[in-house]
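Worked example 2:
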Amino acid sequence: MRSYRQSCPVAKALDVVGDRWNLLIVRELFLRERCRYTDLRNGLPGIATNMLSERVRDLEDAGIIFREHAPPPVATSVFGLTERGRALQPVLRELALWGAPLMTDMAAGEFRDHWLGLIAETYLADHEPQLPAISIQLDTGSEAATLHTRDGLVHVQPGTVEQPDLTLTADATVLAGVLTAQLSLEQARGEGLRSAGDVRALSRIRAAQAPRP
C-alpha cells in the first residue's frame, strides 16, 4: 500500500482506503454484511482476481475488514467489516450523495441488483413522515428487497414481506431509474415495469426529479 507520506488526516485516510477498488470493496461489504470471495468479485465488475486478492489483503492488514472460516455447508472464508471499517459508512454515503448528479444514465455501465439498496438509501426520503409507515417491495427477478419508511428515512431490508403497500417488478436498471425519477412510471412500464398495489406510495418516497450535474 503506497503512502502520501503527509502528516495530514486526509492523506492518512487515503493511505488506507484511497487505492483503486478499496472503497468499492467496503461498499460491497456494507451491502452484503458478510460474503464470500466470489461474491465480492461478482460485485466488482472489471477487477482482476490478483488485484482483488491484493486489495483484500491490504484492507485486512489495515484492520478495515476481517475474514473468518464459515462452517458447512458454506465451508469457505467469508469477509466482513470490522468496527473500524463500519465507521466508513458516513464517508460512503456522502460520496454517494456527491456522485448522485453524475448518474445521468443508469444503463451506461455495469449494474448489480444489490446496488439498489445503496441507491434507495441515498436518493429517497419519506416526504410525509407524519403518515403511517409504508413498505415497497422491489423484485428484479433474481433478488428482492423491501423499502420501509421510518423516522423520515427510507431503509432497505433484503427479501420480501407480507402485504407490502406496493410491489415493483422490473430489471434492476429500470427500478433504479424509477426510484431516482430518471424514468416516469409510464416510461418504466414501457421498459417492462409491473406494479401491484398503491402506486401513490412511490411518490411519497422518491425525489420530484432526477438530480442533475
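The first strand starts at residue 35 and ends at 36. The two ends are 33 Å apart (CA to CA).
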